[in-house]
Amino acid sequence: MIEFRSVSKTFADGTAAVRDFNLVLPSHTTTVFVGSSGCGKTTLLRMVNRLVEPSSGQVLIDDVDVATRHPVELRRSIGYVMQHAGLLPHRRVLDNVAVPLRLSGVSRAEAAARALAALETVGLDPVLARRYPRQLSGGQQQRVGVARGLVADPNILLMDEPFGAVDPIVRDDLQRELLRLQRELGKTIVFVTHDVDEAFLLGDQVVILRKGGQIAQAGTPAEILADPADDFVRSFVGLDRARRTLHIEERAGRQVVVDGDGRPAGVLDPA
Ligand SMILES: Nc1ncnc2c1ncn2[C@@H]1O[C@H](COP(=O)(O)OP(=O)(O)OP(=O)(O)O)[C@@H](O)[C@H]1O
């Protein structure tokens, strides 16, 4: 379990990125921080592995304040997947994935074997292991980033807009793959995105943020859709737009689900 207790962050230039943030992120579930640019998502994420230190308040992992942990040792125990994958251009794919293991003192041979297994876990062909990052597609590079995040088998995986830079079809693929992986692995995932559809697809808990890391609403996707906290949330999740206002119409003897513009979205499954 990760817990934020009255966490605030004001940067040296006076920017108040996060103000009095309180939240529990249950273990083995995915929590998604979603909000517009600059609302503090990345700052919150980076306080978990101490890439950013809170100005006040505490971040706890399983009741231990991360401020009491050695930052390097803490970071090695937490997987981190960045936007644009963040791969080292002059290292082969296999070596990129093996980095967290090598930094932890794992032998070259064992690191290589585990890196290969991690590439397989994320659905990449082992022949790609010998290539350099530039010789991969954007989607493949993102998979390598996820493999590197998972290679040391961390309990916690931080993912900062990991699928933001790929086209919608590849993105769809990567999202499905992450759902499959999470069903198998049951990590505690903290995922940052500005895309509310991605948040609803991946999140067990979705946290909608306003500027300053203020929680507009936190809950399951169903809770948020069924009972939006206010007009900001209603508008942010698109409840004021036709595609979310579904209703049922009888057509040709079937119950057809239709959106607010009258466009069919699907049929009700009698089972
Ligand atoms: N090192 C820093 N120094 C000063 N201000 C910063 C620093 N890092 C972030 N900020 C500011 O803090 C606020 C929150 O930034 P943060 O990166 O957490 O937002 P975000 O929601 O992740 O945005 P985006 O979706 O654009 O990545 C912004 O106003 C940003 O400009």
TrEMBL record:
The taxonomy runs: Bacteria, Bacillati, Actinomycetota, Actinomycetes, Propionibacteriales
What does the record give under GO molecular function?
ATP binding
PANTHER family annotated for this entry? GLYCINE BETAINE/PROLINE BETAINE TRANSPORT SYSTEM ATP-BINDING PROTEIN PROV, GLYCINE BETAINE_PROLINE BETAINE TRANSPORT SYSTEM ATP-BINDING PROTEIN PROV
Domain (ABC transporter) ranges: 2-237
Please state what the protein is called.
ATP-binding cassette domain-containing protein
One Pfam family matching this protein = ABC_tran
User: Which top-rank group of organisms is this from?
Assistant: Bacteria
InterPro entries, per database record:
AAA+_ATPase, ABC_osmolyte_uptake_ATP-bind, ABC_transporter-like_ATP-bd, ABC_transporter-like_CS, P-loop_NTPase
Kindly state which keywords UniProt assigns to this record, in alphabetical order.
ATP-binding, Nucleotide-binding
